[in-house]
Structures are given as C-alpha cells and as structure tokens.
Amino acid sequence: MDSLPSPTESNGRGPNGRFLSGNRIGKGNPAAKQAQQLRFTLMNSVKPADLEQIIGKLIEKAAAGDVQAAKLIMDRVLGPPLSLDIEERISQLERIAGGQQ
User: Fold this and answer.
1) Which residues are within 8 A (CB) of 23 and not within 5 positions of it... i.e. 6 or more apart?
2) What total of structural domains would you count in the chain?
3) Would you say residue 91 lies in a domain?
4) pTM here?
5) What element of type H or E holds 43?
6) What is the pLDDT of residue 75?
7) Is 30 among the domain residues?
8) Residue 40: its pLDDT value, please?
9) DSSP string of 69-88, one letter each residue
10) What is the pLDDT of residues 65-86, one digit of tens each?
C-alpha cells in the first residue's frame, strides 16, 4: 500500500500543510464569529460593580447553605479538586494502617 501524502493542490492545502484561504474544505467554525461578538458584548456590558454585586449574592447564597454556590466559589477561587490516582490512595492507606507515614 502506498503511503504517500495526497498532493497539496488537490486538497486545498499549501506546501506547509495548512489550508489556503478560499478553500472549500477547511472553512473553520461557522459559529466562531458569532461567539466572539457575544463575548465582546458581554465584556463591554458587565462592569466591575456588577461583578461585585453578583459575587456578593453568590457568597450570601453559599453562606446560607447553597451547596452549588459554595462549589462554584471554591472551584473559581481554589481551582477544581484534583482526584488522586487510586493506586496512590491505596498505598497511602496501607502505609497509615501499617504505622508508616
């Protein structure tokens, strides 16, 4: 079986392997422009005072026992929890049970 790459002139790619402008194969993400416009609008609409108010309400909810609010705050401030490898957990438990720490 021949494993030569296809000629670039027939697949819309240039000599470096990237898609050339105007090709009909790799048109990109059609929703990217709209998503960028929405992000731009959001960034221009939300002011620092708005965020402070939103964060304050979120903290109030978390303090009142809203687990989802507390999780969101902790994930954003501390980062999401990291899961330890199961073998590492077992080893740690065995060392503790055996009196080795």
Assistant:
1) 12, 13
2) 1
3) yes
4) 0.50
5) helix 32-45
6) 92
7) no
8) 96
9) HHHHHHHHHH-PPPPPPHHH
10) 999 999 999 999 998 877 667 7
The structure tokens listed for 73 are: 């705050």
Domain assignment of residue 38, yes or no: no
Which residue ranges of the chain lie beneath pLDDT 70? 1-10, 25-27, 83-84, 100-101
Token pair for 10: 């027939």
Query: Residue 34: its pLDDT value, please?
Result: 92
Residue 18 gets the label, from left (phi > 0), alpha (psi -120 to 50) or beta, of beta
Length of the chain: 101
- Let me know if residue 25 belongs to a domain: no
Domain coverage including residue 98? 47-101
Find the radius of gyration of the CA atoms of the chain.
26
Q: Give the dihedral of Cα atoms 51, 76, 44, 41; nearest 10 deg.
A: -120
Q: Position of tokens 């005072």?
A: 49
76 DSSP β-pair partners: none
